[in-house]
Design brief:
The chain is mainly β. It is built from two helices and twelve strands; from the N terminus they run αββββββββββββα. It has a four-stranded antiparallel sheet, with no helix packed on it. A four-stranded antiparallel sheet has the order 4-3-9-10, with no helix packed on it. Strands 6-7 form a two-stranded antiparallel sheet.
Length: 180
């Protein structure tokens, strides 16, 4: 019992010191971090911009883009603000907590075409590490070309087992038949 009394007395002496500690002020200014260009698809481009701060979540990223060589910029959808949202699917499929970042895509582009994409990060509270309340990044990214058959490769004509139309020979009923 003597040990417990000492612990309670020590705890009561430390408790007022803990309560007197001020909470850390929120980091309302934004520090731009790593900018990531995702792997392009045939007609879409994806981007991520990591940040620190912006605890009040009032920063935004404006997006504009154009085919390389064009004069006029088109307005894209702004990047989505993420910070600690949990994406969960049961049975161990995935459980992810999003980092402090912006993410988004530019849609409906032409395949195998270079694009300039411009991103402007704006925080009315200001930015850390640079002057002003805006930072810009411009990248050149090319959409993927449509895949083509390998020259000299084999061609398999695969049809669903219930297909009743004209078939090009050699014809296979389903992928497993063509595979085997």
């Amino acid at each position: 019992m003597k040990g417990r009394t000492r612990f309670v007395a020590l705890f009561l002496m430390v408790l007022p010191g803990l309560a007197a500690q001020p909470a850390a002020p929120p980091a309302v200014k934004t520090r731009p971090g790593e900018f990531v260009v995702d792997h392009p698809t045939l007609i879409n481009l994806g981007f991520e911009w990591m940040i620190q701060g912006d605890d009040n979540r009032n920063a935004r990223v404006e997006v504009s883009y154009r085919q390389q060589g064009e004069r006029e910029w088109k307005v894209g959808l702004p990047l989505l603000r993420l910070q600690g949202e949990r994406i969960f699917q049961s049975d161990g499929v995935f459980d992810v907590v999003s980092p402090n970042m912006f993410a988004g895509s530019i849609f409906d582009l032409q395949p195998d075409t270079p694009y300039e994409a411009r991103f402007t990060l704006v925080d009315p509270d200001g930015l850390l590490g640079q002057s002003g309340d805006a930072a810009a990044k411009t990248v050149v990214v090319r959409t993927r070309a449509e895949p083509t058959p390998s020259p000299g490769g084999r061609v398999f004509h695969v049809y669903p087992p219930t297909y009743t139309g004209k078939k090009i020979e050699p014809a296979f009923d389903g992928l497993m038949c063509a595979y085997n």
